[in-house]
Structures are given as C-alpha cells and as structure tokens.
Amino acid sequence: MVASLRTGVAAQHPSTAAARDVVPDRATWRSVGADSPSSSSAPNPLRCHAVLVPTESDYPEGLYESVVTRRLLRELERRVELEQQIAHVDAADQPHVLTNHVSEAVLRAFAGRRPEERVSLANELLELLEDPEEMPVDGVRQLLSLSSPPAPGRRRIDVTRRPSTPLAEAALLTNAPGEPTVGSELRHELATCDEVDLLCAFVMWPGLRLLEAELRDARDRSVPFRVVTTTYLGGTERAALDRLVRDYGAEVKVQYDARRTRLHAKAWLFRRNSGFDTAYIGSSNLSRAALLDGIEWNVRLSRVGTPTLLDKFLATFETYWNSDSFGSYNPETDRDRLDDALADARGERAGGTAISLSGLELRPYPYQQSILEALESERMNHDRHRNLVVAATGTGKTVMAALDYRNLARAAVKQPNLLFVAHRREILQQSLRTYREALVDANFGELYVDGARPERWNHVFASVQALSQYGVENIPADHFDVVVVDEFHHAEAPTYRRILDYLQPRELLGLTATPERGDGSDVRALFDGRTAAELRIWDAISQGLLSPFHYFGISDNTDLTQVPWSRGKYDDGALSRLYTGNDARAAIVVKEVRDKVSAPRRMRALGFCVSVDHAHFMADRFNSAGIPAIAISGQTPGAERAQALTDLKAGTRNVVFAADLLNEGVDIPVVDTVLFLRPTESPTLFLQQLGRGLRLAPDKDVLTVLDFVGNNRAEFRLDLRYRALTGATRKGLERDVDRGFPFLPSGCQIVLDEVTQTNVLASVRQHLALRWSMLVRELRAHPTNSLPKFLDDSGAELWQVVDGKRSWTRLQRQAGALGDAPAGEEPLLKRVRALTHVDDPRRVDAYRQLLSGSRAFDPADPFARMLYFTIWPSGGGYVDFNQGWTALVDHGEAREEMQLIIEMAFANSRRLTRPDGGLEGLPLALHGSYQREEILAALGHAQLSRPPSQFREGVLRTSVNGRAIDAFFVTLNKSEAEYSPSTMYRDYPISPTLFHWESQSTTSVASETGQRYITGGSTALLFVRRERKNEFGTAPYTYLGDARYVSHTGDRPIAITWKLASAMPPDLYSKTALAIG
C-alpha cells in the first residue's frame, strides 16, 4: 500500500521512501484507489497501489520532504500555529525530487480513472513531454522476453524461469509462508541473468550445493561470475571457494587479513543486458539455512524501481573488486594462504600475525600511501630532509618507515646506509623483520642491542643505549644516509640529543605517537614546528587499525570562567584547587561511569587529571564507591607504577588515575575506558590521551570515552577538540554538532548532553563569526607585518583573512599599518583568494617571478597567461595583455600579497606534484591544483575575446600542439545537500587508476561525441574536485592527467570507465572513494 500526502508530495528521497508505507497515527485517511467511486468493477491492475491521503485540513507535526505547491501552501495557511521550515532544493537534486513528486500525482491520476481511460491519459502525458514514441499501443501490454531460437551448441537463457517477484519491483523477502524463498528466487535469477556479482561474508558448501544446476548453466552460458568474500571469524569454507573457481568458473577475491576484516555484507547483483538488473541485500549468507528455512530478511532491489541503490551497489562492489585489500584466490596457488588466514581468524594458529617473508610484495594501504607521498613531497618539492611522522601506536609506523626506505633505495644508485634507533629490543627485532619483509631480503640488517653487535655496519637496528656505550663519535658523522628514530618523543633526552646532534644523514625520519611531552615540550620544534605527515585518527579507525569509540560529552556543572588564563591555557594550580576536594563533581563522575559502563568492576580505565593531588582525590572517591582504583605519578616508585599497570591489565584494579604520566609511554591495549577529568587545551595532547585506549585487543569491541566538560572561558577552544576528533572542517563541525555527528567512522558515536552541545556550538560559532572588526582591533593591538605570525598569535585561520571580500592588505590598511589604497586595488585584492591553492614548484617560481618583476610578462608564456586570467577571469576589460599587466605593476602591495599567499600555500602543500610527461609543453603539473581559469589558459582556450568567465561546460574540446583534447571538469559532490544518494554515483573513482564518469544525458553512443570518447578519437584529460566550494570560495580541480577508455554501459547518458595513466593522489582517493576495503 502506498500512502501519500494529498498534495502529491510524499517523501522525495530514497532514504525516506519507506515512510510512504506508514500511515501516521494522527492523520485521518481516506482511499483514492481501486475502491474509489471512479473505479470500475473490472479487474484493476493498480489495485495493489491504492493511494491513501490525509484529509485536507490535517497536516500532523513531523518531518516532510514535500514539494511546495499551491495546494500545500493553502493547507499551511490553516496551520499557522506550527513553525514551518522550507528550503530550496539543490539544482543537482531537482530532477530526482521533481520526478518523485510528479510520479505520485501520476499514480493518483491513473488510480482514479477507468482502465479504458488510462492509456489515453498516458498518451497525453507523453505527448506533452514530446516523447510520442513511448506511447502505449493496443492497451497496456508488456514485453516479457526476447530469446533466440534453439540451435546446436548454443546455450541460451531459459526465459520460462522468471523470478516470482516482477523485475521492476522492490520487495522484502523474509522466508515467510506464502512468499517465495530467497533460495528459489536466486535460482531463477541465476537462470535468467547475463552477469553475477556476489558479496558474501561466509561462503559454505551446504548453501552452494542448492544452486549447483543454475551455477553449471551459468558457466555453460559463459556468464561472468565474481565473488568477494572474507576470512571473517573463519566462517568461509575453502572447499566451497574451490568448487566456485574450479567447477563454476567464478573469479574469487578474498580479504585475507583477519585483523582488518570487517565486511559482513551479504548481497547478490544480477545484471541483464536488457537493463532489468536486480539485486538482493540482506542477512542471508551462502548457507542452506539462510536460503531455505532461516528467519532471514532480504531486500530485493531493481534497476527500474530503485535505480540509485543499484548504482551504489555496483559502484561499491567495483571498488572492493579493484582494492588491494582483496586478493585473488586460485586453489592451485593460494590454498595455503587462505587456510592460514582462516585459522588466524578462528584463533587456531599461534603467532599468525607475525611478519614472514612470503615472497609477496609488501604494499601500502591507501592511508600509508598518503603518508609516503607526503614524505616524498617534503623532500622533492620542498627540499626538506628532516621529517616527522605522527601516528597512533598500533597503526603501522614502522611499516611506513620501511616502505619509505624502500622507495629511497629504489631511487638510489646504491642501497643507502640505514640506522634505525629505538629503546627496546622487542621494537628493534620487529622493525628488522618489517624491513626484511618490505625489501624481500632475509639477510638485510643487523641488530645492535643486548650483546648483539653489527659486523658490516651498513644497515643497523640499534638501541640508544648500545650506541651511547659504543660512543656515537666513533662513527663517521655522514656514514648513515638514512636515520630513523622510533618513539621520537624521547629525542629531548640527552642520550638521544647527542646522537641526533652528531649524525649528519641525508634523510632523518622521526616516528612518534606523542609529539607533545608531559613536561610541556614539543618535539616538532626539532622540525621547525612542522609535521610532515600525520595519520588521522578517523582514517585509522576506518581501516580497522584502531578501536572504534563511543564518546560522551558530559556537563559537570563546574564554572571555569574565573580560573586564570595565560599563555593559551588554564592555570593548573587553580584548576587543581577547584577540582580536588570537589565531592559534587566526583559524585557526577562516579554516577556517569555507572550509567555509561555496563560493568564498572570489569572495566580497565585510565583517568587523566590536572594534578597529582587531583589524581589521588579521584582514586580515593572511586575506592569509596567500590570501584578499585589507584593514583600514580612521577614520584611513585617505578616498581609500584609497574604493578599498578599490571593490576589494571589483570582487572584487579579498574582505574589508574594520573596527571601527565599517562600521556606517553603507556601501551595497554586492554584499556577500554578513558576518563577526561580536566580541560585539555591542546587538541594534539587530547588525541594522545585518547590514543591510550584506542589499541585493538581481544574481547574489546569499543572504547568508552567520558569527557567531563565545564563551563569554559571564551578563550578555551572547545571546537578544536571536536575538529581533531572528527576531521570536520570549521563550518562542517557546526552542522555535525547540530545534527549529532552523522558521518563518523563505522562503530563510532559522539553523544553530547544538552549543555555540552550548547557550549560546543557556541565555541564553534564564536570562532566562525570572528568579525572583521575584531581582526582589525587585534592587529592594532599587536602590530606585525607578518601574516603567518598574525594568524598564529590571533588564532585566526587564513580563510578568515583572505576570501572574496577580505585580504591581508586591506586588514593592514584598516589597522593603520598601511596608507590609503590606490584606485583600482580592491578588485585585485578580491582575487588573492584564487591563489591559495598553488602547489607545484614550477608554477610557484613562475608566478613569484612574474609578480616580483624578475620575469618579464610575455603573453606567449603559458604561466603568464594562467596568472593573468587568475587575476582577471573576464579579461579585465583591457585592449591587450600588456595593458592589463601594466595596470597590475602599479599595485605593489597587491602584488606582494599575491606572492605571500602563493608562498604560504606552497609551504603548506603535502601533495607530490610532477611535470606531466604525457603532453609535451603543457604547463600543468600532474596532481597539481588548478582553478578553471588556469586550466583554460594552459590548454590555450582562454583569450581576451573568449575569457574563462564565459566557459560553463563540463567538457572542453580543444587541441594542444595539434593533438585533439577532451578536458573533463568533474565535480564529484554535485549537490550541496548534506547527503544526496541520487547524485553520488555518477562520477567516482573505482580504484586509484580507474575512474567512472557519466556523460551528459543527451550524449548517445552513436553520436560523434560518444564515438570520440569510446574509440579514442581524442586524448581525455581529467580535472577532478570533491565539491564546488571550499572555505576560500570556488574550489580548485586536481589534474589527474590523461586517461584511456576501458569500457562503457548505457546510453544517454553513457557511463564510461577510464584508466588513468598515473594513479590518483592517495589523499584524494581516500577522501573520494565510495568504499575502501
């Protein structure tokens, strides 16, 4: 039964379609379907679609997605007592929304007419839509099948075996009496499809044998059959996979890594050349019980009825299929590997996760590849050779260091000498194994620890103690080309400093999870305040490297507004006096622990306090509440500290409280609860403390985080904590807080109580609303001519100073640091924001030289034209280029600011760019970021008579050096809505080297344009961006280089898969991939 509002504007979004099957309790409903007065007594084919509508005057409170119509406005005028929220629909979503809106009206119209009137109405509608060829002929009939006649040696689809559920319908199958079983439907789907994709966590022979006949028939008809499965819980049977490959010709891919296996989906996709694809998604694994008599729920989808869901299914499956996380399975070569992986998953193989020389190349995951590229960019683009990588414990820092060394070795004539420094034998042994695995060299490296001494001294894994005892001065300072220091937060210690100050390697790499030390020092100072690369916490959780968390932000009613504030933080002494002895707050903490933790006597918790006194006070209160706890500090004897942590691991104590002692050096994977009992100003330190509980451990499903939040001073940046925790943008955080953080990694939740949510929103809005007048006052109070220093001192972001209306020069003028602006300066300053993306060395040098005057402006210089049209997208109204450039030369401050912004943008870039060797003479760097104006100028399209501002198309057809070019401008998130399933699956990366792109809806395969794409009649260049807008205004595109045609489906539009000549930047792929296994 389909329920719809009388206005014909029921749920306009696939995610709310189910609402149309629910009749609101408060509405008064009447039928307008098969039983209405206008209905005929003749059989009604639409009887099952009778429409229910509310009476005209009844619009209950609640959520709607109704198109605003004249009828709806009249009804709303009668409900003036209700607050109305009306918003415009994004242009990208309008076709889908209007289609749903009209379809409801059409359905009611057909339901309310006699059968003989319905064809006439359909013809009238199609004539109005100028599509007369689609008019029904001879009543309402359907084509059910087309099949070739029988012939010797030809296997054809058995068209008599239709699924019981119509191909165009969606359905919910529950194996209930009176409905077809899932097994029966699957057999008929297999018998009548042209391609099969199966995504299944568990594949077992008892379920497979039920489909034997259909699988044999599919094999004999040469039906492609792809299977993606896992080693999750060791549930898959190798014998079943062997049969699929050997007997039925299936291609099988497996996620072998039991530590990372999280896929628990069960889904089939049956593709048909006729276009009537179907799919099943639900709880049924490939087992007998699931397919026949289990209480299983499965949703049947269809290309006709649920096209966007089919699109997502296919896009996600293709992403898994092309992901390095899933390896191919061949029974002849991979059976032992699969057996070992299944045994590991079942916990049957001791040491199953140890690294061994398998002969397979150790390949980085996407997040690791991003870090490796950032390191290469630091060295190649920025000439920085002392670099720090920050990543939480347990996320594979050593693997990244080994892969980085492998990259350096491959680029070198001679394998570089390596020194790897750590402070424990276990770390050194594991690191040596990792490097050997990365280099596929069982003889690589020597240990120097606990009596083991190197002989060759080429690749040494040494403890800091051994090096100190040997005397680092006895080693030539430049002997080691590469020095890697693990746990780099120890670098401030004298033993480490002697080593680092003496050695002069070509490359120094520091690894740490805790850049901020408990004594307040920050090891980033040894790297000019920089972090070369950082593994974001949400990436690590998404990859299954860290535990998901449930974070609770809890107001503790403590007034912090009067606590002294200096040097960007609260006074610790005042905080300690406020918290220590505060029985009311301690009672709140104990109450919330009992409320949020199901069994406090089984938890293993760390509590972060403001002082030693505060830690002892909290331990005393927890012990009094019957929860065994202890406080430790730097004054606690070492043996007692070790025993306290041992007791925590064993569960004989439930909480260990400390001030700064637990910030670093504590590795207890079983910790399942973290208590934040003080305001932590530094987001880095907050993440370090959180990381103490994020390690994976058996029987640990989630980390519980209780953060007790007081009424903070305005200076306290509560928003930075949540940005660090979620990775949200400044403006995105406000939406996330307001909406309850809807886009967290799988398994994670952030729950803020009402008071905390209000405080966080206030902090976010206060920072976002940093008024221009406040910036002017800040600069007057603390004068400086350095923009980076001003940003650092004021806490402002660059986008708050530089955008389409603001600029650093304008701020200086209004603060009195500069004189009056010359005429014509304002339009130039408005374009400064268009230079905040420049990230490749050649362009940086060219722009800098042009703006400084050290490079003469020549209209034939492609960089000069790119910069010109960046400043004047409409050409500037000048007669020729030289006239325009002469006008710019007169504006010294504007040119200086442009140079400054370019230098700041480049200094902060982490993406590796390189010249594009595919097209000679093209001034574009592969993976560089470009505004549309720069691209059009670089490709020779932009002219004063044809400025970039006039270009509005998604594809530019042009030529470069006589070579035909099709340049594709692709925006992945076409809708600015928060989440738009109807537009997400048109353009997307399938893998780092495969890209799915959809042509305009009017482009057919037979057209000249379609044939040019498909036959390779031109060179395709891809320019891709995630969204239209960023914080500075119009977002730049990333140049992905040239691509060649691989395959296509559909017509008007054509869906094309392109093969990129160079893999996408790993950071862009990680952010835009629909799924990363």
**Beta-strand residue fraction:** 15-25%
> Mean pLDDT, nearest integer?
85
Order of the strands making up the biggest sheet? 4-10-9-8-5-6-7-11
Helix content: 25-40%
Specify the structural class.
Answer: alpha/beta
How many helix segments?
36
* Low-confidence segments: 1-57, 288-293, 350-359
Distance between the termini: 38 Å
What is the number of E strands? 39
Description:
With 1077 residues, this protein is an alpha/beta fold. The protein is built from 36 helices and 39 strands. The strands form eight sheets. An eight-stranded mixed beta sheet has the order 4-10-9-8-5-6-7-11, with helices on both faces. Strands 30, 31, 32, 33, 34, 35, 38 and 39 form an eight-stranded mixed beta sheet that branches. The longest helix is centred in the N-terminal third of the chain and has 18 residues. The radius of gyration is 33 Å and the shape is globular. 41% of the residues are buried. The N terminus is likely disordered.
SSE blueprint and pairings:
Elements: E1 2-3, E2 29-31, E3 51-54, H1 70-77, H2 94-111, H3 115-128, E4 171-173, H4 182-191, E5 195-200, H5 205-208, H6 212-220, E6 225-230, H7 238-248, E7 251-255, E8 266-271, E9 278-282, H8 288-291, E10 298-302, H9 307-321, E11 327-328, H10 331-345, H11 366-380, E12 386-390, H12 397-411, E13 418-422, H13 425-439, E14 446-448, E15 459-463, H14 464-470, E16 482-485, H15 494-502, E17 507-512, E18 533-534, H16 537-542, E19 549-559, E20 565-566, E21 569-570, H17 572-579, H18 583-596, E22 605-608, H19 612-624, E23 629-631, H20 638-650, E24 655-658, E25 673-676, H21 683-691, E26 703-711, H22 718-726, H23 730-739, E27 749-752, H24 754-768, H25 772-781, H26 787-794, H27 798-801, H28 808-814, H29 825-830, H30 841-852, H31 862-871, H32 881-889, H33 892-907, E28 914-915, E29 925-926, E30 929-930, H34 932-938, E31 955-960, E32 963-971, E33 988-989, E34 994-998, H35 1008-1015, E35 1019-1025, E36 1029-1030, E37 1033-1034, E38 1037-1049, E39 1055-1060, H36 1066-1072
Parallel strand pairs: 1-3, 5-6, 6-7, 12-17, 12-18, 13-15, 13-16, 14-15, 16-17, 19-26, 19-27, 22-24, 22-25, 23-24, 25-26, 32-35
Antiparallel strand pairs: 2-3, 4-10, 5-8, 7-11, 8-9, 9-10, 20-21, 28-29, 30-38, 31-32, 33-34, 34-39, 35-38, 36-37, 38-39
